[in-house]
Amino acid sequence: MRRGLVLVVSAPSGAGKTTLCQKLLAADPEISFSVSYTTRKPRPREKNGVDYFFVDQDTFEKMIEEGAFLEWAKVYDHYYGTAKAQVEETISQGRDILLDIDVQGAFQVREKLGRDAVLVFILPPSLTELERRLRSRGTEDEETIKRRLSFARQEIARAKEFDYLVCNQELARAFDEFWSILKAERQRSFRRQDLLKRFS
Ligand code: 5GP
């Protein structure tokens, strides 16, 4: 059995990360989604245990104390964290897991997991296009949009530290590049020692 990998995906809000992640999960049966914990309130249509585990601040803080998180961060006034158990169990069974998390969290995962983690940053074609996409959603007020854009600039400044970059100009092409990264990473020789065992 090969060793599973942790595919960490970060992007500024509006880059199309959620769409790319959903397409990957639908297309590839060997990767599953890591459901994060958060203290933010569910949005309409979000389901507890599917999109997130929605918890209160006390519960979240207790989990931090117990060391239950692989990583956690405060993003836009709320706490978000990845449970260690789910990730460890998945990769030890030779399956891959997708983490849709922010930049701070991505670097914590790399620090903890080393080569088991593969960091992908999704870029919008430009900041102007990102602003256009955020506005066309029509879900955020002006102040939130301004805040997200300024946060996007800070996140993009750290994109060069990721292992891979994908520019989401055109969805089909971006998805192809994204999936190719996963397929190639699976075949890294240190993950495929199982193939060599047959010859020793
Ligand atoms: P949203 O509230 O829009 O679902 O997510 C806001 C941001 O939090 C997104 O950038 C998302 O990737 C990030 N996020 C979601 N779950 C986690 C997590 O478990 N850890 C970290 N560090 N960030 C997360």
Quick synopsis:
By secondary structure, the chain is of the alpha/beta class.
Structure description:
The chain is an alpha/beta fold. Helices cover 44% and strands 22% of the residues. It contains eight helices and nine strands. Guanosine-5'-monophosphate binds next to strand 5, strand 6 and helix 4. It catalyses: GMP + ATP = GDP + ADP. Essential for recycling GMP and indirectly, cGMP.
CATH architecture: 3-Layer(aba) Sandwich
Small-molecule binders: guanosine-5'-monophosphate
Terminal-residue CA separation = 16 Å
Number of DSSP helical runs: 8
The CATH homology group name: P-loop containing nucleotide triphosphate hydrolases
| Shape estimate | globular
Uncertain segments: none
- Judged by helices, strands and strand pairing, the structural class is alpha/beta
Rg value: 17 Å
